[in-house]
Amino acid sequence: KILNLKHKDNGTYLCHGKNAHNSDTAIVDAFVFDSPAVQVDHIVAVSSTKLFINWTVTSWNLPVTGYILSFREGDTNAWKYHMVSQINAGSTSYLMANLSANTPYTIKMAAKNDHGTGEFNTYHASVNTLDFDPIFIPEVSIKGITKNSISVGWNDPPEKFKEHIHFYRASKDDGEHVTEVLHTLPYPLHLWGELKSASSYKFTVSACNEYSGECSPPSEVMPGKTYDGLSGPPADVVMSCRSDNISDFHWVDVKWQDPQNPNGNIEFYNIELTGRARYYDDKRKMKVINVDSQTKTEDSNSIMTRFDFLEANTNYSVRVCAVTGSKECGAWRAATCSMPVMPPAGLAQAFTWYSVEKDEKNIFKLSIPRLSERNGEICCIKVIVVRLSSGQSAKDLPSQTEIPITNYAAAHSAEGSGAYVAEIITTVYMGREIEIGDGKSIGAIGVARCSACLPYGRDKRFTDPEPEGANKVEDGFLD
Asked: pLDDT digits over 343-357, tens only?
């Protein structure tokens, strides 16, 4: 048994027992219960009617159940209980309100628990309420804008308000959500980052006191809008490679739709065209070339463009981007197409032939030029002989696409005339000379791999009715 307990007797004890048979030790926690003791640490005037009070309390092992706050106003000796609101038992600070302006107050406090009410502790000095209310409404302005941030600044408070303003509450309203942050830095500037580009916001700032936790009314709403950002890619980019066989003209049509995420106002579109071709040149060497790139700009209302004067047998690719007020290209979107093949260029001037006599018969010596496959793969070379009728000259012939193709026998009948396929040869004969009208067909191997190299190709033209043996390739004797 411990008699005459004091606060310092609170602690852990070892109880040791011993007899003739054994000894033992027990650990005992001893709690000293007493009425709580309050120490008023700090009192600050926060307005003309409020004082902030902060204290520490020693509860002596029993929870605090309440506080008693008393005050004396001015030079009076009478203590009054502060009955405005009950102090939370778990608090160690309190905002005392409904006081008189510019008046000294003496404060004392006591705490209570189940053991009883402790002694009052009187603050060491009287504290005056302010003769004004430090209400400060900042004047807000926009200090800087980027595509994803806005800097908001405000003016400093008057000198006599400065010690009563400890932080600012800055708010941002994006139209759907309001976000608030506490600005505790020493300079009056807050950067709102991670904003959406080309978006409008509303900003306010309130001046706050750290003791009371209260803020002055907010500033006037300051609107701000971020700059345009980089656009997302245009939608549905499509390109089509087109050719006109008659004029040997090639072009590309490009179409697109507006970006789903423009991130601003679209000012114009940039369109870039590039091309690449692989082919055998006239020396049968493989070449890979990149054609000259082309760039176009179309205004924001356009969703199509066209590139003219392009080349056959070329793989083209296009990419499109949208440019906003940021003046930078956004994300690109690409498409591809292949320009159709065309006959080799300059065929009319490429072939030469002359007549000679061989074994008492007239034949033609035909020089096969070395042709580049720039316009497309050359599967074969067809040699078509046209037999003119009596009194007919070459100038009387229709366009070569309109000349009907018959066969050797029909063209050389008693009253016959017309065109027939004398030879179909492969590209290995390019750069060589062949004989036409010698009664022998070369019979080149490999021409059947291309449908265009069948005797009459894709545009089969026969007389009506189709002559017997029309599919026959025959290099018969000339008259």
From this structure: 888 887 889 999 999
Token pair of 55 as six digits = 């204290």
Q: Considering Cα of 403, then 405, then 409, then 410, what sign does the dihedral take?
A: negative
Q: What is the pLDDT of residue 446?
A: 64
| Distance in angstroms (rounded) separating the CA atoms of residues 166 and 210 | 6
* Average of per-residue pLDDT values in the chain: 91
| 393-431 core/surface letters (b: 16 or more CB in 10 A; e: else) | eeeeeeeeeeeebbbbbbbbeeeeebbbbbbbbbbebbe
Quick one: pLDDT band at residue 12, thresholds 50, 70, 90?
Answer: confident
Please state which of the ranges 3-17, 249-263, 319-333 shows the lowest mean pLDDT. Answer: 3-17
57 CB neighbour count, 10 Å cutoff? 20
**Overall residue count recorded for the chain in this entry:** 479
207-245 burial by CB neighbour count: b if 16+ within 10 A, else e?
A: bbbebbeebbebbeebebebbbbbbbbbeebebebebee
pLDDT band at 459 (very low <50, low <70, confident <90, very high): very low
- The CA-CA-CA angle for residues 46, 49, 52, to 5°, reads 40
Q: Is 35 helix (H, G, I), strand (E, B) or coil?
A: coil
Q: Is the peptide bond before 404 cis (omega within 30 degrees of 0)?
A: no
Amino acid (one-letter) located at 405: I
The pTM for the full model equals 0.68
Which residue has tokens 């696409």? Answer: 401
SS3 (DSSP) at 406: coil
- Catalogue the long-range contacts made by 408-411 (C-beta closer than 8 Å, 24 or more residues apart): 408/472, 408/474, 408/475, 408/476, 409/467, 409/468, 409/469, 409/474, 410/463, 410/467, 411/385, 411/387
Distance CA 314, CA 312 (A): 6
Residue 45: pLDDT over 70: yes
